[in-house]
Automatic annotation (TrEMBL):
Protein name (database record): YecA family protein
NCBIfam families per UniProt: PRK10396.1, ygfB_yecA
Transmembrane spans: none
Organism, scientific name: Pseudomonas versuta
Cited SUPFAM superfamilies: YgfB-like
Length: 184
């Protein structure tokens, strides 16, 4: 099995499979999947694929087109989760949450809602224990962004404040990973 990070074509493949087999209860895009996997590798307790794989699909396995399609999805998923684990454990600058980009009133805006929603899904699947106050606040930083409705940005959005909030997510995720790793 390959160990290098996924490339654009790999992410497109994952995205296509997620959209093809997803529903309202499943992970629907690679941003959400990236957040989900980041939480799993940051968990104070290791999470088995038998627990996290069905959670991608809302508890139901997809009706795969073929065994090869299922195998491809699993292989790409495992490669990505392993890459995230390696990047975070090494403190690598290569780790960057997979956020979406859009434009709002002529300004570039980074959207993190789906990544954060995926992260919270991963926290739930990993069944994180209550966290100490500092780590609980870091998790709240992520949760606050997951609660925003970024599908339609308000006309009067304070872009600078929004981007400032998004900028807090990566350091929070790194610190939560470091804490989780210290608890294993």
């Amino acid at each position: 099995m390959q160990t290098q990070p996924l490339n654009a074509a790999d992410f497109e493949c994952l995205e296509g499979i997620l959209l093809k087999h997803g529903d309202d209860n499943s992970v629907l895009n690679t941003c959400e999947l990236d957040g989900f996997f980041t939480a799993l590798v940051s968990s104070p307790a290791q999470v088995d694929i038998a627990d996290w794989f069905p959670a991608i699909w809302g508890g139901q396995n997809p009706n795969w087109e073929s065994p090869d399609e299922a195998k491809q999805f699993i292989e790409l998923s495992v490669r990505h989760i392993n890459t995230l684990a390696r990047q975070l454990a090494e403190g690598s600058t290569a780790f960057a949450p997979r956020f979406e980009e859009t434009e709002h009133n002529g300004q570039a805006v980074t959207l993190a809602e789906e990544w954060c929603f995926g992260y919270l899904r991963g926290v739930a699947v990993a069944n994180w224990s209550p966290l100490p106050a500092v780590q609980a606040q870091l998790l709240q930083t992520i949760a606050d962004c997951a609660e925003q409705d970024n599908f339609e940005l308000p006309e009067d959005l304070d872009v600078a404040a929004h981007q400032s909030q998004v900028a807090e997510i990566e350091p929070a995720a790194r610190a939560l990973h470091d804490f989780g790793l210290s608890q294993r």
